[in-house]
Inverse folding.
C-alpha cells in the first residue's frame, strides 16, 4: 500500500525558508511512472497546487509561487522535497505531498496524499 | 492564473441528488479533459473521487459521477448519504503555463 509522509518544522519565522520532505513508501519514485507534487491549504480556504516533480528532476511550479519555490528529488532515499523562501504569514497552511498523474496533463489527478503538515509562519 | 469557480455551498436531503459546478475557461476545462474532483472531510486529507472528467478510482461508489460541458465541469452525487457531507474541490490541467488549478471548494451539507 502506497504511503506518503510529510516532515519538517511546524513553525517558520517570517522571511525565512520553509523546508519540507515527503517520504514515499510502498512504491519507488525512480520507477518513473508518476509525477509527485506539493499542494497546500491555508486555514479555512481551498487547495492550491504548488508544484510537481518527476524522478528525473524535471519540475513545474505554480506561476504565483515560481520565484520562491524549489523542489528536488532524492531517489536513493525515495523522497522529494519542497523549499519556499522569503515566507510571510500568507504561506501559513497545511502542506500536503501527493502522487500525481502519469503524464503532463494528468498532474491534476492526485490519487495518494500524505496526511498533511501544518506550517505556521510567525515570529 | 485564476482559480476555478465553485459555489461556496450546496445541500440536499438524504436520497436526493446534488450537482456541484466548477467553471473555468477555454484555456483549462474548455480545452482539456483532465478534470478531477476531491472529497475532504474536516481535518482529513482530500480523497480523489473523479479524474479525467468522469472516471472513478477503484472503491469510489458509482453514486458519484462527473461530466463536462464547455468550460464547466460538474460533480453529481446521487442517493445522498450522511457521510457525503464534506467539502468538494475541483481541479483541472491548465496548460503548459498554468499547469494545475483548483477551485475554491464547495461545502456539501446533507440536510
Amino acid at each position: 500500500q502506497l504511503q506518503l509522509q510529510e516532515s519538517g518544522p511546524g513553525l517558520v519565522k517570517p522571511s525565512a525558508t520553509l523546508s519540507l520532505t515527503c517520504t514515499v513508501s510502498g512504491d519507488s519514485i525512480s520507477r518513473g511512472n508518476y509525477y509527485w507534487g506539493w499542494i497546500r491549504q491555508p486555514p479555512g480556504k481551498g487547495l492550491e497546487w504548488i508544484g510537481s516533480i518527476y524522478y528525473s528532476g524535471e519540475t513545474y511550479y505554480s506561476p504565483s509561487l515560481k520565484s520562491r519555490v524549489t523542489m528536488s528529488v532524492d531517489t536513493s532515499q525515495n523522497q522529494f522535497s519542497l523549499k519556499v523562501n522569503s515566507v510571510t504569514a500568507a504561506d501559513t497552511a497545511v502542506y500536503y505531498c501527493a502522487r500525481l498523474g502519469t503524464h503532463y496533463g494528468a498532474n491534476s489527478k492526485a490519487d495518494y496524499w500524505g496526511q498533511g503538515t501544518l506550517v505556521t509562519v510567525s515570529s | 492564473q485564476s482559480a476555478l469557480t465553485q459555489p461556496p455551498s450546496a445541500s440536499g436531503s438524504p436520497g436526493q441528488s446534488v450537482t456541484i459546478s466548477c467553471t473555468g475557461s477555454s484555456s483549462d476545462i474548455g480545452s482539456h479533459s483532465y478534470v478531477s474532483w476531491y472529497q475532504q472531510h474536516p481535518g482529513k486529507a482530500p480523497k480523489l473521487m473523479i479524474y479525467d472528467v468522469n472516471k472513478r478510482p477503484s472503491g469510489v461508489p458509482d453514486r458519484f459521477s462527473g461530466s463536462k460541458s464547455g468550460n464547466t465541469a460538474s460533480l453529481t452525487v446521487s442517493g445522498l448519504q450522511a457521510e457525503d457531507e464534506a467539502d468538494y474541490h475541483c481541479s483541472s490541467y491548465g496548460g503548459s503555463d498554468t499547469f494545475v488549478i483548483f477551485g475554491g471548494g464547495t461545502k456539501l451539507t446533507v440536510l
Observations:
- The radius of gyration of chain A is 14 Å.
- The first strand of chain A starts at residue 3 and ends at 7.
